[in-house]
Amino acid sequence: QKEVEQDPGPLSVPEGAIVSLNCTYSNSAFQYFMWYRQYSRKGPELLMYTYSSGNKEDGRFTAQVDKSSKYISLFIRDSQPSDSATYLCAMRKAAGNKLTFGGGTRVLVKP
Amino acid sequence: GAVVSQHPSRVICKSGTSVKIECRSLDFQATTMFWYRQFPKQSLMLMATSNEGSKATYEQGVEKDKFLINHASLTLSTLTVTSAHPEDSSFYICSSQGNLGDTEAFFGQGTRLTVV
Fold this sequence. Notes:
The complex is a heterodimer of chains A (111) and B (116). In chain A, the strands form two sheets. In chain A, strands 2, 4, 5, 9, 10 and 11 form a six-stranded mixed β-sheet that branches. In chain A, strands 1-3-8-7-6 form a five-stranded antiparallel β-sheet, with no helix packed on it. Chain A has no helices and eleven strands. Chain A is globular, with a radius of gyration of 13 Å. Chain A is mostly beta strands and 111 residues long. Helices cover 0% and strands 57% of the residues of chain A. In chain A, strand 7 (61-66) and strand 8 form a beta hairpin. In chain B, the strands form two sheets. In chain B, strands 2, 4, 5, 6, 9, 10 and 11 form a seven-stranded mixed β-sheet that branches. In chain B, strands 1-3-8-7 form a four-stranded antiparallel β-sheet, with no helix packed on it. Chain A binds chain B through residues 8, 32, 34, 36, 41-46, 49, 51, 88, 90, 95, 97-99, 101-104, 106, and chain B through 1, 4, 6, 32, 34, 41-44, 46, 49, 91, 93, 95, 97, 101-102, 104-110, 112.
């Protein structure tokens, strides 16, 4: 079993819809949680970075962390075709700085 | 966010030759840089952790003699793929992290290597 599970998709939504992405993890030692967006043939771009359980909002993006359930989510409001990309969750333990990635979810926002 | 510059973005080389990929942290000092490999439609696979002034730490199954990593300064790490073979063709990505343990990692643009 992988340490971080993420549905590969693809997830297809109409423009303007809310995109809901999530990851589950098995290791309770993970303390820092990140979401990255990756366009084809490009490096990942950091979208959200959270530490504690709860919600964090940045523009159209909301990240949720539920450490008791080992479950994290990313919501994208008012989705645009330019949001079409692969979204990767990543997490890190308190000690050390190695990231563990989910497999990524491909998202397609149709105009 | 911080800027990490990776060059080249694309390279084609002949089998048996070596290719060097550079990763520069432009606006902060990176004591640690990471090198990843990514196959099509798959996630990032960590190859090695590069520490400034010391030897890199390689993940299990990664040949250190084939993938040479040098981190000579706080802003530059290089990955050299030696004696490249077609199976080394892949997307290579670096990331760097600042000096404080709780900072996020920023990624370079990636390098698409094709070995013919």
